[in-house]
Amino acid sequence: MRQYLRQARLTIAPPGIAVDESLRLAFEVRTAVQDKPPPSTITITNLAEHTARQLVAPATVRLSANYVGHPLDLLFAGEITSIDQGFEDRDRLTTLTLGPTGRQGRTTAIIATAYQGVVALPTVVADIAARMGLPVVSLDAVPDLTVSDYVHAGRPEDALTGLLRPRGVEWYEADGELRFRQRGVPDARVGFVLNERTGMIGSPERTEKGARATMRLNALVRLNQQVRIDSQRLSGTFKVITIAHVGDTWDGPWATEIEAVAL
Fold first, then answer.
1. HEC profile of 133-152
2. Domain boundaries, the chain
3. CATH class of the region 108-182
4. Could you tell me which residues come within 8 angstroms of residue 230 by beta carbon, excluding any fewer than 6 positions away?
5. 251: helix, coil or strand?
6. How far, in Å, CA of 193 to CA of 227, rounded?
7. Which residues make Cβ contacts (< 8 Å) with residue 190, sequence separation at least 6?
8. Residue 189, phi then psi, degrees to nearest 5
9. Which architecture does CATH list for 6-104?
10. Could you read off the pLDDT of 77-107 as tens digits, one per residue?
11. For residue range 15-24, what is the model confidence (pLDDT) as tens digits?
């Protein structure tokens, strides 16, 4: 049965289609602070056959959702990596497996780059990032150091990791952007408090490095954001390292799950 307090909008280009909550949309979209983000999925029930035939991979995907009465917020921006068509009873199911923007083309992409003499590290990082086809955010987190006679032949992701990890910098993809941050430093965006009054569902769980918690669907949560968790079972200040938005416009959960490390 359709949940009338839930709204969602999915756009796919090409072919340039939009799907809203009038069709059943079930999603599990994930982002994480790691070189290879986990895959995400969206399943559309009873998408018209002629529309389903137009879907191709890769194609750009944007998923927005919220509760009725609130503006739609972006949950995920990326691209289709594979498409699966099938049936469950009489329903046609179209399942899209998703990855970050540009991932499909980059997984086999090989670049060759070389710099003679001394060159600024931010310059090299910006050049490699440009090969990945993503807008760059927070490049100021890359230290103003230099490298000498730098040469790389291989995947651009490996080049970034090799340059930045020894210098205490992490890179990650989120919302269709390439972002950088100093290891261990929370995002500069204002943090938030998570408790029963602010939307926490159930009780948080302690993990080896921090905590895992679930809240009402909240697209405003960001990777590396600081969160203060307050509950009878667990309290403390943490940094968000994984986000999973899980929802179904007709049934089941409508929630955001986070994993965070202790600060």
1. CCCEECHHHCCCCEEECCEE
2. 6-104, 108-182, 192-262
3. alpha beta
4. 193, 194, 195
5. coil
6. 6
7. none
8. -60, 150
9. Beta Barrel (2.40)
10. 889 999 999 999 999 999 999 987 654 444 4
11. 999 999 999 9
